[in-house]
Amino acid sequence: MKERIITGVLLVIFVFAGLVYASDYLFGVGVFLVAMLSAYEWLKFTKISQQETVNYLVIFMIILFVVSEFFVYIQYVFPIFWLYAIYRLSGYERQKFDALSTNEMLILGVFAISPFAASLYVLHTNSIAWIFMFILVVAGADSGAYFTGKAMGNRKMLPRLSPNKTIEGLLGGMACAVVIAVIFLLFMDLSIFEYVSMVVISAVVAALSVVGDVFESMMKRIAGVKDSGNILPGHGGVLDRLDGYMPALPIFVTLGYLAGVFVV
Description:
This protein has 264 residues and is mainly α. It has 11 helices and 2 strands; from the N terminus they run αααααααββαααα. It has one domain. This is Phosphatidate cytidylyltransferase. GO terms for molecular function: phosphatidate cytidylyltransferase activity.
């Protein structure tokens, strides 16, 4: 527990310093490193050789640059991918399959990680305030879901994949996210339409964060591992910390762009 707390505190300090003090260039370098670490952990799920891992990391690096460069044009593909991910989660939950092919796992990794990294950089170029809001919304949704589920959770959402998650917890998490958004957005210079849009988007983000959490759980079960890595003592790997953020951030940015709030 002590190790987990120390790592958590250091992470908060590091993230805060990076958001507040880093230039767009330095922040971009940081995002790139996080994306590559995430990709490396994902590749370990597939059990491919070390040489193949290096080859695929090079390919992923190229894809990441392409996604970042043409984000404004391809951002609408990201929701389609996560709809497919939900479909695969449903199939796994209903015991339609217990394994994925190596190629499918590789493709899933590309679509899970590269849009997240590109979206994070885009959001930073808009305003760090939006990143803080996004983090608070997802973290608040997670806490709200936990306490609501503990207090009144009866209907299990995904008994096989995540037996502790309940429908009541999901709704409680979404409600908590909305409350955080309502308060935070009061300090932003927004029109009524933009304000209401971002509140609704925050509820969507809260639900999607659950998708990311259980999606990584599915990948780890298929790979037969408990954690995605051990780079963060007491917390596991990078993916273990980012799983809830990965599907939520690209959708947050795209919907915010459509609402006229963000520039991409």
